[in-house]
Amino acid sequence: xxxxxxxxxxxxxxxxxxxxxxxxxxxxxxxxxxxxxxxxxxxxxxxxxxxxx
Length: 53
Known about the structure:
Blueprint: E1 13-17, E2 41-45, H1 49-52
Antiparallel strand pairs: 1-2
């Protein structure tokens, strides 16, 4: 039987990350498209923030 690869996609990518140490200080409006993320770090994925953050 021959298997054909379909829907090939790359699972490696970059994402932005910002750690908030306390729930009392949440980041408001982070989901808005005009939110400023220039101070956020870029990390590669898949990974975990404990190693990359």
